[in-house]
């Protein structure tokens, strides 16, 4: 697994997906978005600020 601290959680059957970052640190400070490759759909960007 390329990103063992990053998990996708939620009710996948109903289309609910959330990014969970374990032990977030300064390197995780970034803009994130979800992309469904098959449908070419992207979520709005979400900014994570780690202090």
From TrEMBL:
Which superkingdom heads the taxonomic lineage of this protein's source? Eukaryota
**SUPFAM superfamilies, per database record:** Immunoglobulin
Q: What is this protein called?
A: Kin of IRRE-like 3
Q: Which organism is it from?
A: Cariama cristata
Its taxonomic path starts at: Eukaryota, Metazoa, Chordata, Craniata, Vertebrata
């Amino acid at each position: 697994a390329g990103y063992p601290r990053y998990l996708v959680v939620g009710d996948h059957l109903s289309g609910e997906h959330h990014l969970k970052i374990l032990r977030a640190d300064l390197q995780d400070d970034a803009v994130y978005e979800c992309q469904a490759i098959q449908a070419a759909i992207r979520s709005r960007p979400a900014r994570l600020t780690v202090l």
